[in-house]
Structures are given as C-alpha cells and as structure tokens.
Amino acid sequence: MVKQTIQIFARVKPTVRKQQQGIYSIDEDEKLTPSLEIILPRDLADGFVNNKRESYRFKFQRIFDQNEKQETIFENIAKPVAESVLAGYNGTIFAYGQTGSGKTFTITGGAERYSDRGIIPRTLSYIFEQLQKDSSKIYTTHISYLEIYNECGYDLLDPRHEASSLEDLPKVTILEDPDQNIHLKNLSLHLATTEEEALNLLFLGDTNRMIAETPMNQASTRSHCIFTIHLSSKEPGSATVRQAKLHLVDLAGSERVAKTGVGGQLLTEAKYINLSLHYLEQVIIALSEKHRSHIPYRNSMMTSVLRDSLGGNCMTTMIATLSLEKRNIDESISTCRFAQRVALIKNEAVLNEEIDPRLMIIRLQKEIQELKDELAIVTGEQRTEALTEAELLQLEKRITSFLEDQDPESKLEVGADMRKIHHCFHYLKKLLNDKKIHGTSIASSEIKDQNSQEPLKEEEYKKLRDILQQRDNEINILVTMLKKEKKKAQDALHVSSMDRSELRRSQSSPFPPGNPEGPRMLPPSAPTQAPDSSTSQYRSSLLHGKTGMKEEMSFGRQEAFEIFKRDHADSVTIEDSKQILKQRFSEAKALGENINEARIKIGRLKEEITQRHVQQVAQGISESTPVPSTPDLLEEKLRSQLQEEKRRYKAMFTHLKALKVEIEHLQLLMDKAKVKLQKEFEACWAEEATSLQVNSPAVNSLNHMKPFPQTPESQHERSQLLSSKSSGGWEVPDQGPQVVSCSDVYARKILPSPGPLLHSQEQSSPSTPLEDRIPERPVSSVPLTGDSRTDSDILAFIKARQSILQRTEPTTLCPALSKQEGLSDGLQGTLMRETADLDPVMSDSCPERPTRSFTANSLQFRQ
Ligand code: ADP
Ligand code: MG
Questions:
Q1: Cβ-based neighbours of 466, under 8 Å, separated by 6 or more
Q2: Looking at the DSSP assignment, which residues form a beta bridge with residue 92?
Q3: Quick one: which of 302, 315, 501, 659 is 20 to 30 A from 171 by CA?
C-alpha cells in the first residue's frame, strides 16, 4: 500500500500583456516546496479581498511558469503517474482552474502544433511504448471517455453521438454494488491495442464533444471530461490479473459568481457557477478535515465517479491552472486556496491484483479431480455404476492421443478408477486385435525374411554405421542450405511486397491537388503495428458525416462555405497544419525509401558474407587444408558494413515510427478543425437564415429598391460608399447589431437564401409585374453596379430567378434562366466580374457594422 497526499502542481498560462508581470513571483529557493506569491495590485487590494493583505503565498509541489513546455509538464507530472499505473496502481490527474486558464491545453493539448500535445496523447504514447518493451506480461488496454454535463453523464465514444443530440443519448448512470464499488452503466469501453487506436478514440471523443456543444450548452467550459485508460496485465499462465485505471480529468471552469458584500466589497467566498464543482469542494473540505466520518461523495456524479481518486485507492495529482492577469486575480487566489485544501487529502493506493475467476475455476476443477482420485485410492472404495457415454468417449480420446504421442515419457492418466482402467485395457486389446487381422500377412512375411538372413558381421556393421553417419552429415548440410535459400526468398518477397504496398499507397492519390490532407496517408508502418482501420474508419465516417454535408449543399451554400472557410481565423492554422503535414509526409516517404534501400543492402551484405563462407569452405575442401580459424579481412569488412547498415536501418525505422505518430496526430487535429469549421458555418448559416426571415418583412416595407441614378456624381458617391470604411450602401439601418453575429467578412459577402421568404412573396403576389416586384426585395440584398445595362440585367435576373424558383430546383436555374428570360449573353460573366470586383472592397470595410449583401443564390452563377 502506498500512502500519499494528493500532489499539487501549479501552471501559469502565458500572459498576453507584459505589464501584468508584477502580479506574482515564484520562490524557487525553497527547493522542496516552492511557493507562489500573488501580489495584489494597489487598486484591487483596497476593495476586493475582505482584508487588506497585499500578497498571498501558496505552496506547491512544483510551479511551472509561463514558458514551461508541454514536454516538461508531462515528464514531471504525468510520467510518474503513468509509471505507477503500469505497476498496477490507480492514478488520477485533474486540472482545475477558471475558464481559459489552460486546463484543456494541459490535459488534451493545443490544436496548432504537434509539440502542443497535452498529457493524454503523451501518456498514451508512453504507456504503449512501455507495453511494447515488456514482453513478460500480457497487457490489455481499454479506453473510456465520459462527459458530465449538468449532473448527467454522457458517453463521448457512443457512436450515436453522430446522429443524436446530447439530450437524446442514453445517460451514463452510476450503479453501486454491495461492496460499494462504482459501476458506470452505458459507458462503453473500447479496446485499444496501439497508440494510434487510442489516439483515434481521444479525437473521436473530442469531436463528439464539440459537435454536441451549442451556444446554450457550452460544454467545454461547463462540463467535466474524464478520459480513462483501463490497463490490465497478467503473466502468461498465471491466474492473477492486475488492473489499474488512469483518469485524466479536464474539469469545468472553476469561476464563481462573486457575491457583493456590504459596502460593495467583493467577497472571495463566492459561489461556483458549476454545481458539481461545489460538491467537489464539499468533498475536499470534508476529506481535509480530520475526524469527519461522512464524506458526501454521493451528492454528485463527478464525486461518485472520482471517489477513489479523492481519499481512496489512487495516486492523485492536481494541476492548478492559473491565468495570472489583473482581472483574474480573485479567481487565481481561489484556485490556489482550493489546491491548498486538496494537498491535505491522504490517499491510500493499493496494488489492484485479482484472481481471474475463469482461470481459477479450471485450476480448481483439476484439483478436485485429483483429490477425488487420491481419495478413491486411499479409501479403497470403488465405484460400480457403468461409465457414461461421455466418460467413455473422453477416455477413448485420451487413449488415442496417448498412442499417437511420440514422447516415450508420456503417460495415460485415468486416475484410480478401476472401471476406467478396465476399459482402457479392453480398448487397447480391441485395437491390437484389429491391427493383427489387417497386418498378419505382412508381419509374418517380414519375420520370415529376417529369420532367413544370417546375423551381420561386425565389420559390415561398422561400415554401415559410417555410411549412415555420412548420410546424416549430408542431410544436415542440405537442410542448412535449403533454409538459407528459403530465407533469401522470403526476404526478397518481403521487400517486394513492401515496395508494392508503398507503390499502392502513393498511387492511391496521396494528395489530390488542392487537398493535400486528402485521404489518410501513412508511411510504411511498422510490421507489428497494423493501423487500426475500425476506429479510423469510424472516425473518418463520422467526420465525413459532418464535413461531408458539403456534398449535399447547394452551390450557393457551398460557395458561402468556401468563403467562410477562407476568411475564418482557423484557416491559417489549418493551412499551416497542411503544410507541416505535407512536409512530414514527404519526409516519411523519403525515409521509407531509404529504409527499403537499407533493407536491400543488408540482404546483399548477408549474401556476400555467406558466399564468402562457401568459397572458403570450397577452397578448404579442394586444397584439403582446414578452414582458417581467423576470419579474413574482407569478411570482417563486410561484417562491419552490415553492422553499420543495421544501425542505420534501426535509427531510420525509429524515426519513421515517430513520424507516423506525428502524421496521425496532425491528421486528427485537422479533422477536428474541419468539423469545428463546418459546425460554425452551419450555425452561422442557420442564424443568418433566421435573421433574414425575421427582418425582411420590415425591411421590405421600409426600403424600396431604387437603382442608383446614373449621374456621374452618384456613381462617384456609390464608389465612395463601396470603398468607405462604413460600407454604408450595404447597410440596413434599422437592423441592430444583433442581426449579424458571425464573421462579418462572411456576412458581407454571402447570406443564406431566405427560402421561406421567397415562397411567401410568391404566394402574396404571384403575378406582380417586374417593376412592382423588384422593390419587394430588401434594398441591401441586391448588389448594383451603377452601370444601367448591367443593373437592369441583374434585376431581370432576380425576377427570372424568382419565377423559376417556383417551378424548378435552385441548382438547375442557370440554363433555364438564360433561355427563358433572354438575358444578355455576357450577364453571367459580368455578374461574376462585378461580384469579384466588389469582394475585396467589401472585405476592407468596417468589420463591426452589420451589413447585408446579395443572397447566396445570386452566387449560384459562379458555379
Ligand atoms: P480552459 O480549458 O481552462 O478553459 P484552454 O486550455 O482552452 O483553457 O486555454 C485557453 C487558451 O489559452 C487556448 O487557446 C490555449 O491554446 C491557450 N493556452 C492555455 N495554456 C497555454 C500555455 N501554457 N501555452 C500556450 N497557450 C496556452
Ligand atoms: Mg477547456
């Protein structure tokens, strides 16, 4: 048993502004327990904390300042916990801190760089590396990923996540057995045999979490996520199994509702926004107080799930994430105070060894039988009832395998049951008699032959023995040669199959133009690690399900999505990732080629050495001189070359494996970013569609479309409007800023087509003439160029489109349109040019102002 208090660490998130730096200091001198001093700025010290202290000092196991890398965090915090989990102890690492302080960054990692990967991917990598090294045990790893939101548990690895909303998914519930062990119903456990499979599960869960998130359900700040690695190990042949769990927990934001005390002073003892964090605090307080008999674990789901981690059978570590900026000072102090309490909790971790009941049953059954047999011998008691059919059958099977066994030491074990012994004799007699009848003639003739021959002479006997020895030697030599040939053939086959698979991979459109991230592309994998197709397939189908919506999009929507994508802040990250991925992939490809070359070279060197040997032996035989005992210089050279090549091969192989993991990780990050983008676009699209519907009638009644008068002044005015920062010409003044809340750049360019609105217009005035109909559209929704011909073309187009919309699908508009309405041939080109010209102007215009633009359907021209 290992008794240990919960280990507490602090991590300070990099601050954006330099002037915030005077707010804290880390005292590293106290080597054993470093301390963090938070210094209250003068203006805050007066009002906010209930006394007028100017600084607060908190002790931590270790404090990681702003510049500490993810690698350092893993090495110092997670690696020791992972090691104890590998040894069979339970472990928990949880991150606690306000929203934005770096909990997710620490536990899961950042999405931008491979080096930003957090504790979970690094721990998985470490654990699988260790499992591979240790061949003395059989390990099994399972993964589960639980999200607790509003006191309800959800399985983040549930495949139904894709199709259902969070509320419709089956809830994970807690069951407690008579021994007070917690079991989670509806939480799936997934077998992961490689690091890749486990990583896929992590990303699948994260993606599911993101998909489920809505503005009303800010899961990432209000929910707790528990990623659990279940590890079991067993020595071959042993019935004892070690089982350990590692919980990696990303808690909800710890921010509180600040209570204002008398005189407007803020009190630090404020209430948590998150109820389960409140219960967590209660459990922590109860545990940190001596002589408290009742610990209120049952109050909340999270404390029930983490029961062992808090004061139980677990080695637990807390990371307090701090965002030490002036405005966060009170939350940071609360986080540190919480950590100080946590540090008082003592856990008692025990080795989780269990006997596997199945193996135990087999062992006990055997023992019972042996004891029964022994008892029968000792008591001399004999059973008299006839043997059953099944017993007879089993006995005969045993006799057959006994007779077939070539081992002279083998035994026929039937116990002390006389009935069985008798049956064995009967059976053997029967077998013998059967054989006799069949083999009499042959046997008798053989005996006769032998009798007719004279006994062999001693001399002849020796000669024959020598011949036999000679033949034996020959056979040995031939067998060795055969083995070598076979090995060579296998090696060649292996190399060529590697080549072929490499070729296949590169042929299957590695990076289609403009889409370098393309299909999953892995470098030639380690022979032992087949990529897990099931989870990647599932994930990719999930991602495809989410991102693949594009295929069903109308052209306008697709175009809108393209623009949204281009202007989204994440596109830079995605682009960067693409570039890195591309680079890593070509590195991996080059490496794969080098590895193959090295492999071929190794094969060639081995062959040369063998040939050299054969030559020497042949030389020795022909000159009848013994083979020189010291190896010759050429062979030595070949051997050292071989060693060198092998070293090179190994180094490259290790590098390739690392690259493979990195590629996989980057790929997953990009997949995740894509889903995020798609989700944001969908939300934005839906929002815009609603706002269009809500606002259009009012707009219609207020604004009647007036094509710009074609005077030079007005044209000048117009161009000024277009290029001015305020983008006034495109504004709808009576629409408040609430109308457009998504990317303004996007909103300025593309807005969803107000389908239902159009429909209602058609219904209200099905046969309105063009001049009367046009003004019904919001002035801002139709882009005009100022050129009368083009503008009238545009207006004609709008009218035509509306009438066709009544009859045809939007995607089939273009050909129908030009034929039926007789628009000028150059219209399509003109529109495209005009809109293309306008775009850059519009993107420069004021980003804060809500703007309206032409509808997405007008962009269908661009297809
Ligand atoms: P939380 O999960 O606590 O709400 P996040 O982990 O999402 O906070 O962090 C908020 C932002 O700060 C993210 O963009 C993240 O990448 C960044 N961040 C947090 N910690 C660090 C760090 N140590 N180094 C660099 N960036 C960080
Ligand atoms: Mg977070």
A1: none
A2: 247, 316
A3: 315
Instruction: Write out the DSSP string of 377-444.
Output: HHH-----SPPPHHHHHHHHHHHHHHHH---TT-----TT-HHHHHHHHHHHHHHHHHHHHHHHHHHH
Q: Tell me, in angstroms, the distance from the centre of ligand 2 to residue 116's CA.
A: 15
Q: CA separation (Å) from 678 to 345, 576, 665, 749?
A: 45, 18, 20, 18
Only one residue has tokens 């005189």, namely 263
| Angle, CA 53 vertex, CA 49 and CA 58 arms, to 5° | 90
DSSP element (H, E) containing 836: helix 827-844
State pLDDT tens for residues 711-744.
444 444 433 433 333 333 333 333 333 333 343 3
Distance 100 CA to ligand 2 centre (A): 7
Residue 367: per-residue pLDDT:
85
Specify the ligand 1 atom closest to the Cα of 321: 3
Residue 538: pLDDT over 90: no
Note the pLDDT of residue 465.
Answer: 81
Residue 737: strand pairing partners:
none
Q: What number does the ligand 1 atom closest to the CA of 97 have?
A: 3
Residue 445 has pLDDT above 70, yes or no: no
- 187: buried, middle or exposed (CB in 10 Å: 19+, 13-18, 0-12)? buried
Name the residue at shortest CA distance from atom 23 of ligand 1: 13
Distance in angstroms (rounded) separating the CA atoms of residues 542 and 675: 10
284 close to 342: Cβ distance less than 8 angstroms: yes
Instruction: Answer yes or no: are the C-beta atoms of 186 and 159 closer than 8 Å.
Output: no
Indicate the pLDDT class of residue 614, thresholds 50, 70 and 90.
confident
The residue to which tokens 């889903």 are assigned: 675
Q: Give Cβ neighbours of residue 444 (< 8 Å, ≥ 6 apart).
A: none
Task: Name all residues whose Cβ lies below 6 A of ligand 1.
Answer: 13-14, 97, 99-105, 110, 221, 253, 321
**Number of neighbours of residue 216 by Cβ within 10 angstroms:** 5
The answer to whether residues 799 and 770 touch, using CB atoms and an 8 Å cutoff, is yes
Tell me the two tokens of residue 630: 């010291």
Please check whether residue 730 is in contact with residue 748, taking contact to mean a CB–CB distance below 8 angstroms: yes
The best mutation among 105, 221, 669 to test binding of ligand 1, ranked by most ligand atoms within 8 Å of the C-beta, falls on 105
Return the ligand number nearest the Cα of 110. Answer: 1
Please tell me the distance between residue 665's alpha carbon and the centre of ligand 2 in angstroms. 19
What separation in angstroms does the CA of 385 have from each of 143, 368, 369, 419, 425? Answer: 54, 20, 18, 9, 18
Which residue, 571, 602, 688, 597, is CA-closest to 112? Answer: 571
Assigned token pair, 788: 């009368």
Mean pLDDT, residues 273-297 taken together: 86
Counting ligands in written order, which one lies closest to the CA of residue 253?
1
Collapsed DSSP state (helix, strand, coil) of residue 258: strand
Closest CA to 118 of 665, 705, 695, 826: 665
Q: Ligand 1 atom 25: the closest Cα is on which residue?
A: 14
Q: Which residue has the higher pLDDT, 113 or 762?
A: 113
Cα-to-centroid distance, 519 and ligand 1 (Å): 30
